[in-house]
Amino acid sequence: MPALRLMTYNVRYFGHGTRGLATTAEAVTRIARSVAALDPLPDFVCLQEVETQSLRSNTIAPRWHPGETQLDRLSTELAAALAVAGKEEQYTAYYFPAHEYRLTARTNIYTTGLAILAKRGFHVAHHNAGRPHDITHRARVKNLKQTRICAHLSFHHKSGHTFDVFNTHLSLPSLFSKAFWTGEARMGFGPNQLVEAQTLADFVDRERRSDHFVVLGDFNSLPGSPVDRYLREERGLVDALPSVLGLSERDARGFATAGFLNLRMHLDHVYSSPTLQWLDFAGTHAFGEKGRFQGLSDHVPLIGRCRVAEA
After folding, report:
1. C-beta neighbour count of 107 within 10 angstroms
2. Cα–chain center distance at 125
3. pLDDT, tens digit, 9 for 90 and up, residues 191-215
4. Per-residue pLDDT tens over the stretch 256-304
5. Across 86-111, average pLDDT
6. What is the pLDDT of residues 131-151, one digit of tens each?
7. Using the 8-state DSSP alphabet, how is residue 122 labeled?
């Protein structure tokens, strides 16, 4: 099977310039152009924190037509950027809604969701965009808890292999946990996060169509945290970036994928089945370092290339 290039990126609702308060047209354009400039282009682009329509997404960046969603705008901008770059590739976009905060029956304050862009030419055999899987752990204030989901897309490759892509975004550690206030490390140490990781892994095992799969996204969890160790040690997944770069848990924590004020954290991961051989993460740079995606979000993308390992 030829190598596949996959990308995961928390785009912060395309509102990093306003500290996440409102989407800007410039952010959508710059991110689309940055993706279009990658060489080779990713076969699949998995995004977290993508809106539909809301006050947050449309106040500063008004819609070009009444039915336009945030993903529609990105797709339009990406197609234009690809055309300018002289690249013939096109993408099909899938949106996976997670949560809505309503002001009225017709007006959302803001919405949350995931997206997967699949390069055209891949035969997508299944996706759960119509009904993403809820992985949220709800212990208290259930009505206020933001829904967390897992997006799933399965495709058949011309080589004959079937391949599964799972895109997710886990909750932050619960403020109601004693460990949050007493522990030194918090991200990935929340009991609620571990429950969500278990729910996620069960869903992956139940729904995957093949032995070749990736589970990627924003896990809000540090390398070596209970969430990370559970997925690797108990569920047998490979954390691809540290594996390719030969990083220990401690060193992997030093490779920041997100930043908040002066904090730098490794929260995003590309996990996979052990049947995949990871070749490189070319184009990936740590948060705060100079790179194509610097300053476009409070996260940086992870861009990895893999293939099915030889038996």
Report:
1. 10
2. 21
3. 999 999 999 999 999 999 999 999 9
4. 999 988 899 999 999 999 999 999 999 999 999 999 999 999 999 999 9
5. 88
6. 999 999 987 665 667 999 999
7. B
φ and ψ at residue 154, rounded to 5 degrees = -120, 135
Question: Using CA atoms in the order 10, 127, 275, 90, what is the torsion angle rounded to 10 degrees?
Answer: -70
Structure tokens at 30: 């710059």
Rg of the chain (C-alpha set): 18
Q: Which residues of 15-26 are buried (b: 16+ CB within 10 A; e: fewer)?
A: bbbbebebbbee
Structure tokens at 270: 């590309």
The CA-atom distances, in angstroms, between 232 and each of 55, 95, 170, 201, 272 are 40, 28, 16, 11, 9
Least confident of 51-60, 74-83, 294-303: 51-60
Reported for 143-151, long-range contacts at CB under 8 A and 24+ positions apart, including other chains, are: 146/98, 146/99, 146/112, 146/171, 147/98, 147/99, 147/112, 148/98, 148/196, 149/96, 149/98, 149/113, 149/114, 150/200, 150/203, 150/204, 151/46, 151/94, 151/96, 151/114, 151/115, 151/116, 151/127
Torsion of CA 179, 181, 183, 188, to 10 degrees: 60
**Alpha carbon separation from 173 to 49, 192, 284 (Å, rounded):** 17, 6, 26
Domains of the chain: 4-308 (3.60.10.10)
